[in-house]
Amino acid sequence: MHIADMMIWTYTAESLVLRVQKLAGQRGEDAVAHEMAMMKVYCYEVAERMHSAGKEALLAFAEGGELKGMLMGL
Predict the structure, then answer these.
(1) How many independent structural domains does the chain possess?
(2) Which of 6, 13, 32, 60 is most solvent-facing, going by the fewest CB within 10 Å?
(3) Is 55 helix (H, G, I), strand (E, B) or coil?
(4) Distance (Å, whole) CA 39 – CA 56
(5) Full domain range(s) for residue 28
């Protein structure tokens, strides 16, 4: 379930980034400064949620040295 959530968050973040890039191309970066700021906040929050969900997913199946290595990779 955590991995599915992470995939959904990745999709929404990517979609948001692409939409803001498209708007910036149409209107100019100065005109979409507000949207750019919202995108950055959303991506930061998603990164935090993904890190937390990733840790929980790893804790569900790994242990010992394997868990330690995977957590360092996360």
Answers:
(1) 1
(2) 60
(3) helix
(4) 26
(5) 2-73
